[in-house]
Amino acid sequence: MSPTTTSPTTGRSFLGLSPALLWGYVAIAFFMTGDGLEQAFLSDYLVTHAGFTTAQTGSIFTVYGLIVALGAFASGVLAEYFGPRRVMILATIMWIVFHVGFLYFGVMQGDFAMTLVMYAIRAAAYPMFVYSFVVWISYAAPGDRLSSAMGWFWCFYSIGVGVFGSYLPSLTIPWIGEIATLWASIAFIAVGGLLAGLLVRGRGPEQHGPRTLAGLLGVLTETLVMPVRNVQLAYGMIQRIINQISLYGFIVMLPIVFVRDLGFAQGTWLKLWSLVYLVTVFTNLLWGVLGDRIGWVRTVRWFGAIGMCAATLLLYFVPVIFGPNPWLTAAAVVVFGFALAAYVPLSALMPALEPHRRGSAVALLNLAAGLSQFIGSLMVTLLWDRIGTTGTVIALAATYLVSFGLSFLQKVDQRALAQDAGAPAASPAAATAGEAAGR
């Protein structure tokens, strides 16, 4: 079986959901369920049970975020060059192997160094899996429905990491405990890997000639200079970095702040955090479809940037002012989930800016997504002890004002880009060969 079929995607789509890619979306949900089981309780567990300090825990998540950024970038290039299916299978194996090391040699032994190293190496596997599928979508989805197709991706992503990933621990932890819950995540990862390896169809990057290290380095170098050559790619990357800064900052902060400082029960907190992703299940698709209709940049500017600035403040200050009231806090969570997803059109904008190098454009988007996790965690690590929780939250919210201003520099002809994106595209190597032949 070839890593990626190059035949055009067939079958009618439903709001941009292609039947050929359906099992890939389901694979994303399973994989991210496994990866997300730890999200809402791991930082608190490392402090209260494994014996790590808050600074050590912050360092673990910061290094994790940095490796995610590098893995996210590599995933686009590798998927373009070797095919998404192969990269997704490799990522599944990596995740399982190093998760075992993370738990057995690190967390269960209370060994900070092993926890840091194993968790960091495992970090590369998650972006390699999920963002390789984004490359697949960028080739297989119709150009005029690309934002909608990406909306479906983030919809299934949220079903996994947030709905099941965040909600299931509220059921399993009282029953089997935190460590057993972390071990159980392997089953979800394995199912996701099997689905991606066996059942996904749809057009992908065309493979031309043997895959060599020199060729891979050429694609990598070309990808790195693309934002210099096309400044709109650089603007899109910055927007994607800002997108989830508060989300990943909150992953480090809020499990501790809500439970220890604000008085929420752990089960209540877990349900509230899962609600963020339950909301994005619908809003990812909503903003993807609306982005195709009202404009990709306009959606990001007004509903993403302004929305996230307000939502970041609300999610913290509502429980601070009104106490551990789950209903009022849930309302703030819903606003946060709505605004967070309004950056979905960036997933359509970036590959559309480079229709002949879509995988490379997605690699840049992936790098930005990983940097979002790194910078969000880093901001908390650097600021929390220095300016306190309130100051850190305000700093996170302020980044979205930068996003708002930057959106006015994003000059794109969405209709023309969508038409270009709908045309078949070769891999960067093939595109370069075509350019050489034309010179």
Automatic annotation (TrEMBL):
UniProt-annotated location(s): Cell membrane
One of the record's GO molecular function terms: transmembrane transporter activity
Keyword Protease: no
Annotated keywords: Cell membrane, Membrane, Transmembrane, Transmembrane helix, Transport
GO cellular component, as recorded: plasma membrane
PANTHER family (UniProt xref): RESISTANCE PROTEIN MDTM, PUTATIVE-RELATED-RELATED (PTHR23517)
Family matches, as NCBIfam families: 2A0118 (TIGR00897)
Protein's UniProt name: MFS transporter
Lineage: Bacteria, Bacillati, Actinomycetota, Actinomycetes, Micrococcales
